[in-house]
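User: structure tokens for this one?
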Amino acid sequence: MTPPSFGCLIRFRRYHREVADPMRVGLATFGGDEFAVLHDTCVRAGHTPVVYVSCRSMRPSGPVDTHAVATTGRILEALPPGMDLLLPGTAGGLAVALTGYRLDLLVVYGFNWKLPRAVLDAPRFGVVNIHTSLLPRYRGPAPVLWAIRNGDVGTGVTIHRMDERFDAGPVLAQRGGIPLEEEVTPERLWPQVRPVIADLLAVALDRVAKGDPGVPQDDAGASSAGFLEPEFSTVDWSRTAREVHNQVRMFGFMGRDYAPAARVGEGWLKVYRTRLESAEGIRVDCADGPIWIVKSEPVEPPVIESPAPR
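Assistant:
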């Protein structure tokens, strides 16, 4: 057998220096399907998930969220054998627990809490976050809701390094082109988001393992996607028809229980669906023209009222 040349040995050694070492990874997200995508992507990339983290409250030290109770049950049903699940009560407790797992990286997607420095510093390579917008646009906890509210035709996914600011760390991977349909729902959007997350996370894991710091965001293009103002749950007919229509679409994405209330004539309706073109239903005049309520039901007046239709 002919021995390899000196040049071949140099190329072989350079290749092995470029190949990322396996990492011990923690996963923090909000549902069984989401854990499964993150877990499978890490495994396919040669890394080892060692712990799951899920929120039991909207904020550290807060009361247990009722939605989290049902979600935790579904996560437990899908939990891989031997995998630990953390349900931290405080951010400090989370930092201590993660230190014990000797993590190289924590991957976060849709985790409710703003993570303090103690948690960000616990993994050897820090924390990366998966955000469903094209950052720096729509920084904050509700990017998809604001995209629908603003009438965007599509959204995207960004994976970035986490720092103590909201969604402002350097970008590791990003892709747009995910359409927001007229009647967008989580069930219809998730199948389009899932493969994008898987593809981008594989890229981001490789870059983190190789020490890539990521690309700084341009703060000049930043916009906020914070929590919705309480009065937005009531329809204001002095807005444009398009604005009201997108308001109804946005709450429709959140679920039937969140549909906005609207004063129509002498009564109030829970509005589930509207149309901008003539349709069978209730016609109401907005600031710039009519809108048609095509699905609704009577409801008691809300505490916060808005102007009656003209």
